[in-house]
Amino acid sequence: MKKIVYILSVALAAAACSKPESPVTNPEPQEPVTGKVEFTAVFGEAPVVKSELSGESVLWKAGDEISILWDGGNTTAQADAAGAQANFSASVDDASEYFAVYPSKASVSLSKGALTVGIPAEQNGAFEDVNIAIAKTTERSLVFKNLCALGKITLSRNDIAKIEFKGGEGQSLAGDVTLSINGEGVPSVISTASAAESIVLTPASGDAFAAGSYYFAAIPGTLNKVEFTLTTVSGNTILGKASANPAELLRSKALNFGTLDAEGAATTMTLTFDFQGDALEGWPTAAQAANTLESKTVTYPLDGTDYEFKLHFPQTSDTKPRGVYWGYSDSYGNRLLLNGKFKYAGIPAISGYKLVKVILWQKRQGNDDKEDVPAVAISAEAPATNPSSTASMNLVSGGDRLTWKAGLGKNEIGGPYTYNLSGTEEGTNYYIVIYNVSKTPSYVAGIAKMEVTYEKVSE
User: Fold this and answer.
1) Extended strands (E) in 112-185
2) 3-state class of 232 per DSSP?
3) Element (H, E) at 446
4) Above 70 in pLDDT, residue 11?
5) What pTM did the predictor assign?
6) What is the bridge-based pairing of β-strands 198-201 and 226-232?
7) What CATH code would you report for 272-456?
8) For residue 331, what pLDDT is reported?
9) Could you tell me if 245 and 225 are in contact, meaning their C-beta atoms sit under 8 angstroms apart?
10) What residue ranges do the domains of the chain occupy?
11) Where does 204-322 show beta strands of DSSP type E?
12) Predicted confidence (pLDDT) at residue 367 exceeds the cutoff of 70
């Protein structure tokens, strides 16, 4: 995996001189004093890009707030002015050493000289909110050093509502970390409590992230794999980007994971189609007489993409009204109905991806189906004529018949019924089909919603 290293700053408006080799020092040693004390602070590492720069330096903003801790007490203080160096006045007790943490909203505690800081599992992607910096002094000069590793991600679309980042199983990315701070002021993690194996980013305001770049903070370490899952505002489409290659998250560095939603970037893709609302334009909405049935292609738009469903009806001698349609009843509302033996609802095909899982939820198909037991399968084809028997149907491996529930109540949803498929091919349509019905010959199944998962085919 290609790594792009970024110079790291205090994301909070914290800041520092771009020349850490010249830290601020006090001209004369000062006696500890209980009461109002003025600390001088700089950021002692080369900074990552920050919103307020002066040449190559990152600046404090007036009012930037830090936490100051000592054994037996803690307080907060604010920068007195903007600049590469700022003064922080605080009322403190006499102590042999003081610790400072930026930003002040970070969860912190100090016990017997051991500093514990919370790296949050829920973040908003803003650099200034997640880049935690630490300082330790025996006098009144604070030189902040970065605690976390950073990940940089980019979005090209404007409808992503949630981003989840995971490493390998059992690998901690966030939690309450207890630190060791060496003689140069560099913090390192020695233990983690309340560990989280994923980091979730949601927008600081609004329903979705705007297109652009975002950051997350994590415990430094080497991950044996990487996985991102993106959820859109609609909650229907989930895009995943994953890599089996190790990723090294280094303290005070930012690793660029690139554009997560670039075309073809997803290694898996899960789409949810809900048929409980009003029928979409172009979909049939009622059964048709056998001599008027004809196969057709209809679309279901999700997050700006039109997904095609192929509704297929083989030649039949059935004289009753049948078909596949987005039906409605006053008692049970809207649902996708497969009405009739060997009626096929084609699942969308996606170029470059193969279908690997289908999950279906059931809705009562009609007023007279208390004893109906739909049995539904996934077919590898939609034949031109009816199969001679159910035994002759070409079912997908893993798509064998599942018997659904009979006698659903008015607001009851049956399922989920899960079909884990194998042997499927890229860009190919597969079909939901009534396989058999016991107790009555109605051959009807009502689908409330479906969730379909695709895997990217390796090139």
Assistant:
1) 114-119, 122-123, 133-137, 141-146, 149-155, 160-166, 174-181
2) strand
3) strand 444-456
4) no
5) 0.78
6) unpaired
7) 2.60.120
8) 82
9) yes
10) 2-18+30-266, 272-456
11) 212-218, 221-223, 226-232, 237-243, 247-249, 254-259, 268-274, 296-302, 305-312
12) no
